[in-house]
Amino acid sequence: MTRHSALTWQDASMETGFPWGSTPTVDLRPWRADAIVLFDWLMSTDLNTVPITHPAQKQALADLLARLEEVDIIESTGEEIAAAQAEVAKNMGW
Questions:
Q1: DSSP string covering 57-92, please?
Q2: Contact between residue 36 and residue 73 where contact means Cβ atoms under 8 Å apart
Q3: Alpha-carbon distances of 53 from 28, 43, 50, 56, 80, rounded to whole Å
Q4: 29-39: b (≥16 Cβ within 10 Å) or e
Q5: Residue 59 and residue 65: Cα distance in Å, rounded?
Q6: pLDDT one-digit tens code per residue, 25-72
Q7: Taking a C-beta distance cutoff of 8 angstroms, is the pair 47, 61 a contact?
Q8: Which pick of 39, 41, 45, 53 has the fewest CB atoms within 10 Å?
Q9: Is residue 11 helix, strand or coil?
Q10: Is the C-alpha dihedral spanning 67, 71, 76, 80 positive or negative?
Q11: Mean pLDDT of the 14-25 span
């Protein structure tokens, strides 16, 4: 698998519909296994116990969870989660 390059400001787009107006967004295309692992972790984690240095970090995790809820991974079975974890964990090298 090849990792995607870092996002730049040119990758950002504007999203409307928020109460405070237009908000810049980025399009991320994570591997499905990564998305399943992140969604499972975020759903099972109390964000109040995650070490943060700024409240925005907790909000960003909650926002990520909300976006992941919009895709077809939310009904992943235990078997699919285990397979995704195995896929993501292999060849980590650290």
A1: HHHHHHHHHHHHTTSTTTT--HHHHHHHHHHHHTT-
A2: yes
A3: 24, 21, 10, 9, 33
A4: eeeebebbbbb
A5: 10
A6: 888 899 999 999 999 999 999 999 999 999 999 999 999 999 999 999
A7: yes
A8: 53
A9: helix
A10: negative
A11: 61
Q: Give the separation between CA 24 and CA 21, rounded to whole angstroms.
A: 10
pLDDT, residue 19, reads 54
Residue 89 pLDDT class (50, 70, 90 cuts)? very high
What pLDDT is attached to residue 26? Answer: 86
- Single pTM value for the model: 0.73
**DSSP string spanning 28-56?**
----HHHHHHHHHHHHHS-GGGS--SSHH
Here the tokens at position 29 are 């295309």
Tokens of 20: 């405070």
